[in-house]
# Entry
Amino acid sequence: MEPAATIITLLGGEAKVSEITGRGLTAPYKWQYPVEKGGTGGLIPQRLHTKLLDYARAKGIALAAADFLPVQNTAPAPASMPEPVS
# Structure
C-alpha cells in the first residue's frame, strides 16, 4: 500500500528500513497492510519520518516530506446523471 511501499523500496527494502528506524523487521511490512488486516493502510508512523528523511539525504536518495502523505485519488468525480423525464 502507498506511500509506504514506494518509500520502503526506495530506501532499500524492509530489512534496511527496519535497521534505519530501529523497529522490528515486521514493522515495515505492517505499514504496507490495510488497516483491516492490522496494518497502517500504507502510512509510515510520523515519528519515524525524520529518521528516514535523514538517511535518504545522507545517501543522496530523493525523498521529501510530501512523499509520506497519503495518496489521494485525483480522478475527477463522475458527472451526475440528469433525472429521467416522466
